[in-house]
Amino acid sequence: MDFLRALEHDPPAELLNETCKRPHNIWETAVWAEVSGRSLVRRGDGTHRLIPAAELGPADTILPGGLKPSHLTVRDDGQFTFTPATALSRARIYERPDPSGQERALREALPALYRSLFYA
Questions:
Q1: DSSP string, 73-90
Q2: Which residue from 97, 101, 102 is spatially nearest to 29, judged by alpha carbons?
Q3: What is the pTM of this model?
Q4: Which end of the chain is more exposed for a tag (fewer CB within 10 A), N or C?
């Protein structure tokens, strides 16, 4: 099963169960949440979820972070630096003021998002 086939076909149950048991890191989760219109929130009951804006409730708190306009300078070796820019800049860099707090919240919110995709 490769990643393209997985987009069109369900994997065999045995393969899915084995894959889901393995640890994995999703480095881009916060950026994909941003571009998909979801927010990482602390719900009124204290749980954390990745939810669409339409599901935001009055007791929910959006955890800070987002794509910020930036000027990028890219060196020949591929390394880059960035500085803040106005909203007119096309370049964006993801900023999260509390990385460890966001990591803790995502450890709860991401499995809940996965479950919602399969059991909705």
A1: EE-TTS-EEEEE--TT-S
A2: 102
A3: 0.68
A4: C
Q: Per the structure block, which two tokens stand in for 42? A: 């602390």
The residues facing 41 across adjacent strands are: 49, 62
Residue type (1 letter), 60: D
Compute the distance between CA of residue 77 and CA of residue 27 in angstroms, rounded to an integer.
Answer: 22
Alpha-helix runs per DSSP H in 9-97: 13-21, 29-35
CB 40 within 8 A of CB 48: yes
Q: What is the pLDDT of residues 44-72, one digit of tens each?
A: 999 999 999 899 999 999 999 888 999 99
Rounded Cα–Cα distance for residues 80 and 101 (Å): 26
